[in-house]
Amino acid sequence: MTADVSPSRQDGPRARLLALDYRVFEAVASRHWPGADRLLPRLSRSANHGLLWFGTAAAMAATGTPRARRAAVRGVASLALASATINTLGKRSVRRARPLLDSVPLIRQLKRQPITTSFPSGHSASAVAFATGVALESRAWGAGVAPVAGAVALSRVYTGVHFPGDVVAGAALGAGAAFAVRGLAPTRGQLPAPGRPRPEAPALPGGEGLVLVAESGARAGERARALGAVLPLAEVITCEPDDVGAELEKAAGRARALGVCGGDGSVNAAAGVALRHGLPLAVLPGGRPDHFAYDIGVEETRDLCRAVEEGGAVTVDVGRFRSPDGTPEEDRTEGIFLNTFSLGVLPETVRRSDRWARRLGDRPASALAALRTLRSTPAPMSAEVRGRRRPLWLLFAGNGSYHRFGLAPGRRLDLADGLLDVRAVHGGRKPGVRLLAAALAGSAVRTPVQAAVRLRSLRVDDIGPGTVAAYDGELTDVQGALLLDKLSEALTVYRPLPVIG
Fold it and tell me: Which of 73, 300, 308, 416 has the most CB atoms lying inside 10 A of its own CB?
């Protein structure tokens, strides 16, 4: 139902605001905008029930970039909060009638007129909430979504279903919902740098002095070419994955900064070379998954280019595994890890979980990966941990504290905390129930089935022959005893630092 809400017989500040609202509505209704008569009503209908924004979020997520996925999720969460607020509080608090449609041309009017009260505009709240949520996570995506959101808000006045004041109030509520979501779940830009600041990292304008070695795969090659276009003075070398280590060693002799673009194994090799030569490391994501690059805040080529040119960098810890002193030379094992080190069934479990997590979610992926891995697992590993001998189905040590439920590693907020994130699933003849319970419970829960602790170092003794260890995607045979510890703040890594002020 519509009604004449002309405030001509009222007085006071509220009446003047209502009068202005009424005059603006009449001005919009009487003005003809070329092309808008067909476009804006269609756009308004497409936003019914948030369908336009859900479709936009799906398209953003389909691009595959982490920032776009996060922006899409934040936009939808902001929209959901705004819609809940409008429907539970807004519409019931102010029962304002809809405008009369006498002055609105028939071609603009919606075929189905809304039957709810007019104040505030739910479409405007949803549009602004989604656009603001997206922009808080990604300015580039926000700039693309904002004009559409503005057009949807305008369409509500243009089609005659809302007064301008309804739209302004809805927009304010939508923006407030987006900021409320950010208060509950901070954006990546709000989080502190995941390492310790290192201002003395060299700034390399145009990339001069940077030598980047990239794997020859399609994704890594594309990223490396994009970096070369932005940093024309950088030297970019493309080679087969098996040749990355040798190329990195040669590059270290002439580089001011060493760069790598590839999978976890290549990044691990580059970290070792950078440590030996005392060089800062530039990591460009080019494999799947790219845990280390994403955790330090380098998700796209422009992130690394900005850091290299400005000299933005942090120091991070490096995990280390090695045989104890006195181990015969032929049995010695040593290496480093930037992400994870694992023994037992975890290497294959994590690999499968990472592959399925995007489609199924973390916990279902961890559970399914655990069950699939068990089919080919005949017996637990035997080892002595912290003075106690026990059968172990898996042992995991992360370089820094991970924040994710399930067996697979996830996100780290601090790569210089000096801690190993240690998880173990132990004992029992039937590992199925144990691994499944650990996958569903997550790392934060201690049970008789699993242990989850954070330590500065760990010793594992009496590892049986033929045991395979996985570190940053690489595999090696281990036996006897192993020491796990950290090289605190040993590696300087380029990453874009937040702008202060």
Answer: 308
Nearest to 440 by CA among 425, 422, 420: 425
Sign of the torsion formed by the C-alpha atoms of 42, 164, 135 and 176? negative
CA distance 256 to 276: 14
Render the burial of 453-484: b for 16+ CB within 10 Å, e for the rest: eeeeebebbebeeebebbbbbbeeebbbbbbb
Distance (Å, whole) CA 283 – CA 278 = 16
d(CA 181, CA 126): 14
Could you tell me the two tokens for 231?
A: 């940093």
Total-model pTM: 0.69
d(CA 311, CA 321): 31
Phi–psi pair at 58, nearest 5 degrees: -65, -40
Residues forming a β-bridge with 478: 467
Choose between 427 and 86: higher pLDDT. 86
Q: Which residues pair with 91 in a beta bridge?
A: none
pLDDT score, position 434: 53
376 phi, psi to nearest 5 deg: -110, 20
- CA 483-485-488 angle, 5° bins: 155
Q: pLDDT (tens digit, 9 = 90+) per residue, 232-285?
A: 999 999 998 889 999 999 999 999 999 999 888 899 999 999 999 999 999 998
Start-end of H helices in 47-121: 51-62, 66-85, 91-93
Question: Between the CA of residue 160 and those of 116, 155, 392, what are the distances in Å?
Answer: 14, 8, 69
What local confidence, expressed as pLDDT, does residue 366 receive?
Answer: 64
Mean pLDDT of 115-133: 86
Tokens describing residue 286: 């080019």
